Amino acid sequence: MIDVTYIFSVNYSGSHLLAHLLGAHAKCASIGELRNFHKFTSPGKDRSTASDFSRNPIFQGLGDVPQSEWYELIYPRVIAEYPEVTMLIDNSKKVEWARRFAADPRIRSHYVHLIRDPRALLRRWLNDYDTPHKRRRQRRTLVLRAPSNLGVALLGRDHDVLLHKWLLANRRITRFMEAAGQPSRVLTYHDLVTNTADELRVLTQGLGLEFESGQLNFGAGKSFGTRKVDYVAMSERSEIRLDLRWKEDLEPEIHEIVTANKRVLRYLQQIGLTFCSDGLTRVTA
Asked: Which residues contact 211 (CB under 8 A, 6 or more apart)?
């Protein structure tokens, strides 16, 4: 049986950092965004993510076999080079990918939900969806995924629509993990970056492993598959830096709207999180 830990998150939530930190454990190997293997091995436009799927022998021939066989192909190749590895870290982010393997008797699945302050994602999305056409598409997508959000999609301001996009995506992850019946493993980008050793210790132990201080030297860890282009140099230096650009780039009105949104507050209470000055953090007794 192959142990696979799936990292779930909304894009730009810090999942690559978490994958590198876990992949630096002696018994773990990060295999990147495996769900996007075909995307990253086909010719295309410039991307924010770099991939070694095409040239790394660990992934050779994946495109020629069914996806259901991918872990059984990858794992022996990993342990041939790193015999101590017992767990693969899959940073595919989407629950739809993990669901494919949930009932596979060859796979023992573990799930981690990494969540980032919605204000950081709003900043990113408002920059990415910078034309009326792109923002209309976001409204249509919101309704298609959750018809109950029709009112917001029709009448809400752009940041209202994107806030509901964030909420919908994270709620989907929460529902999947609850249905899986596994222990809750939720951590925030803020806590991971500002309290890395302690957060990683709790998470690692929750996955049945002992925390290793060498994980903090994640630049020397076993991370294959994908890396964020903008952070390659930082990763090689094992540098962790809290990204707070949203504090300056978002208008104060948007800050207030996000932190006062009742749906968001109910959801955060449900999963034991709260807003702090620099992001989201775990509620402490």
From this structure: 197, 200, 201, 204, 205
CATH of the domain at 189: 3.40.50.300
How wide is the angle at C-alpha 91 spanned by C-alphas 88 and 94, nearest 5°?
Answer: 125
Dist. CA 98–CA 175, nearest whole Å? 13
Backbone angles phi, psi at 12, to 5 degrees: 70, 30
Is residue 127 in some structural domain?
A: yes
Question: Are 11 and 70 in a shared domain?
Answer: yes
pLDDT score of 219: 87
- pTM summary value: 0.94
**Is residue 134 a part of any domain in this protein?**
yes
Residue 81 structural domain: 2-116+184-236
Q: How confident is the model at residue 48 (pLDDT cuts 50, 70, 90)?
A: confident
Asked whether residue 151 falls in the same domain as residue 262, the answer is: yes
